[in-house]
Known about the structure:
single chain; 425 residues; alpha/beta; Aspartate Aminotransferase, domain 1; Aspartate Aminotransferase, domain 2; 2 domains; seven-stranded mixed beta sheet; four-stranded mixed beta sheet; 15 helices; 14 strands; globular; binds 4'-deoxy-4'-aminopyridoxal-5'-phosphate; ligase activity; 8-amino-7-oxononanoate synthase/2-amino-3-ketobutyrate coenzyme A ligase; ligase; Aminotrans_II_pyridoxalP_BS
Amino acid sequence: IDFSKASFKDFESIPDMNVFQRAGFFKDFTDYMEVEGRMNYGFVTHDGCGPEIFLSTPFQQTPKRCISLVSNDYLSFTQHPKVKAAAIEGLQKYGTGAGASPLIGGHHEYHTKLENKLSTFFDRSKGSSMVYTTGYTANSATLLSMLKNNDCAIVDMAVHASVYEGLLETNIKRFPHNNLDYLERALSEVQSKYHTRIVIIDGVYSQDGDLAKMDEIYKLTKHYGAFLMVDDAHGIGVLGKRGRGVIEMFDLLNKVDIISGTLSKAFGHIGGFIISKPEVINYLKFQSRQYVFSSNSTPAMNGLLVALDLIDEEPEWRARLSENVTYFKKGLLDMRLDVGITESPIIPIKIGDAHKTGIAARLLLKAGVYANAIIYPGVSRKDARIRTSLMATHTKEHLDKALTDSIMSIESWVFPKANKLYLGA
Length: 425
Ligand code: PMP
């Protein structure tokens, strides 16, 4: 394998190498990437969870104060005093763990309260929701237990990895991102072939920050008698008048067949959930191996009961986040940087070349901004970018510092077109 052209996928199987030899070879590869500056920062260690963190990396051992543009803690609820107090109260009342998997004694009062609250949050009846240990599991486990040989998933190519993992035992049709013509073609091709046809989309797409064309997708899906599942991990809590996400924006809260979401982003905790008809939830609770044979979240999830209330009681967090998004995006656009088609707090700075993107991320870090370089296979090979995401508690000073001290200071060769335009050349 030529390391200079290799990607992680090339190490999945190598002739004549057993798994331990492959792991050794892969270690050589990640070391090479590190030295060449082509890896982001590998696994960084940092202190602090807010908009400012202390961060150290393999090439920068002393922790350095940075502005963080990597967190999905959009509303900064991980730091909200009421959320923290409720989490601590949960731990004090119930202890530190669930003690067993849900079906055999690990389904506690706090799990039931959260399920009921989630049903109410989405204007659904009691029994319409369930909680998984992560958002990733909510998608993969739900789909794995529902879709088999006689079924077919029709997926937007840009859906999250957890959806793809859920489709290992069923038939798949992919359609290019948000492309309604291809979707319609796929729906009509499979219409009489499979018992279940389910279209699966994200609400907000996690790399470009753009939204699903949900109203048109919903109409097409129903026209062809299929079901619709929406993973709105990045939208719920953040977008929509009442913070119910992209599904609310399109007025489809009571119409989407399956909603999946995470508790680890806007709600500031960990876990994932599914909202659907009570009979589907019942099915999943008995049939989903990852639910049946695995312990569920800890009593600290008591904090989530408050976080869900705060979405209604303190809409100012959403408003502050939205102001930050407008301000930061304008700052980037004023520098003629390419932010793509984002409509959410995920704002990419598109560069294209993976090597340049890696170097840009390091230069940003040197200038005091922590933002991720996203390269293949996270995005396609020529679409590497720095991905930024904003929080409600970023101040104007944070954003100005990130924009002027750091992003603008990047060498002109990283963003040649942008800088040329910026300098009026
Ligand atoms: N869906 C999407 C669209 C995501 O971006 C993510 C997390 N990156 C997940 C699901 C998984 O969520 P969690 O971190 O709770 O596993």
